[in-house]
Amino acid sequence: MADTNDPAQQLAERAARAMFARDRAARMLGMRVSRVGPGHAEVLMQVVPEMINGHDVCHGGLVFSLADTAFAYACNSYNESTVAAAGSIDFLAPARSGDALTAVAQELWRTRRSGLYEITVTNQRGERIALFRGRSHRISGKVAPQESSETQ
Q1: Span 108-135, mean pLDDT?
Q2: Would the N or C end of the chain have less CB density within 10 A of its end CB?
């Protein structure tokens, strides 16, 4: 994640660091948050042999998990605890063992309590693997502890 003087960017990065420190599922799957900013995130995952299903392709649930993780980092980037209210995915092409997958989440719409996000999953050749759409719901609390310089 890049260092910047933009307070909104700094807040997004701080929230992502706090989330990732507790995100055992993402770490177990080898995911890395490569970029985050207000309303967007990019998460990477290498497809390893243990992720391959009986059709010799990456299990769809793991592709969903990658997209859902990018969604989570994007909608929590304002340091307001936010959870998924809904998520759907369209699988466009198979991911295979050895593929390097990237999920890019982008905020489409956000209000005080809800948001809508679109996530595109691609492989190392830029081929679209899946399209995911998530709807978020704001709950109480902060992702990372409030700093004294932040306003309420």
Answers
A1: 98
A2: C
Q: Is the pLDDT score of 3 beyond 60?
A: no
Does residue 69 form part of some domain? Answer: yes
In total, how many domains does the chain have?
1
The enclosing domain of 42 has a CATH number of 3.10.129.10
Q: Which of 97, 98, 102, 96 is nearest to 128 (CA)?
A: 102
Helix (H) / strand (E) element for 60: namely: helix 60-75
By the 8 A CB rule, do 114 and 138 touch? yes
Residue 150 included in any domain: no
In eight-state DSSP terms, residue 40 is E
Residue 96 pLDDT more than 80?
yes
Q: What is the domain extent for residue 37? A: 7-138
Q: Whole-model pTM above 0.70?
A: yes
